[in-house]
Fold:
Amino acid sequence: MIPRPRLGKVAPETFALHIAPYLGAQRAEVLAGPGSGRDAAIIKTGAGRVMAVTTDPLSYVPAFGPKRSAWLACHLLASDLWTTGIPPAYVSVDFNLPPEMSDEMFAAYWRAMSAEWASLGVAVVTGHTGRYEGCGLTIIGGATLIGLGDEGRYLTPAMAAPGDRVVMTKSAAIETAAVAGALFPERLGARLDPDALARLRALESQVSVVADCRAALRVGVRERGVTAMHDATEGGVLGGLVVLAQACGHDLRIDRARIPLPAEVRVACEVFGVDPYATLAQGALLLTVKPAQVAAVLAAFAEAHIAAAEIGEVVRGQARVWLTDETGAVTTHDAPPADPYWDAYARATAEGWR
Structure:
């Protein structure tokens, strides 16, 4: 029997075998194209100017409703683009709607999305909207976000260098915990008191790294401060660290005890049956920083009321993550883990969790 392909992003070996060798024409102005750890592409547009481009699915989460779902979809895209250091400006939107999504439901989603694009300074410039058999809720289309900026200001994960320190914002498993809090409050309520459950559900507003990137960039980029940024999404914090190591070609030495993981997030992951370090962590920003600027970056996060911690360093090596646990044991990781979220979500919804 042919094994069922895993849900979520394709495995790295699938990307390397079936996608990476087939990227159309080669063009000299593409400074950073598709690759492990790259949240966006960088294209040179003229003297001293570049364009940053990213693409992601558009999601509709029934438990969040149209407004919150639209906010989340916008910030998934904007978070990826902001990790380049280039602010977003234009978006192309494609909707492939399921037949059961009414005009009224779609209109509420789209009005909320338009309002959020406006708040992010983004103009909708083109797109497509249709309703088709075979499409379903959860993923209802996709979008491409574009920004323009100075060539000397952009970042890619390849710019992380030995000696840089690794900093992380917020918490592991933020998005997984936020979804669990919204979908299964009764089940989580058996393990959490009302205050802890309220904190868990409040994480929904933190599933974005736009504010994180803005705060860090105020310190400076490259030799003046931040050398690389990566949005931890599928595969969680551990997956994000692995692809960051692969993108820069160096090792990362990480102390797991320093990775923030609030008690209520840990409990949500236990109930959901997922590894908190390897599951959806949209909202957690991983960044590398020159040692002399670490204090300034942490101060910038504190000023913006964003929790952050230094969790490790970049060292010379073979593009691996060396993870030291609370007992002092060290494990090495050279491939992103398969994210357990999608199977856990499918199981919980099939079993009717509330």
In short: The chain has a mean pLDDT of 94. The two ends are 34 Å apart (CA to CA). The chain has two domains: 12-153, 157-350.
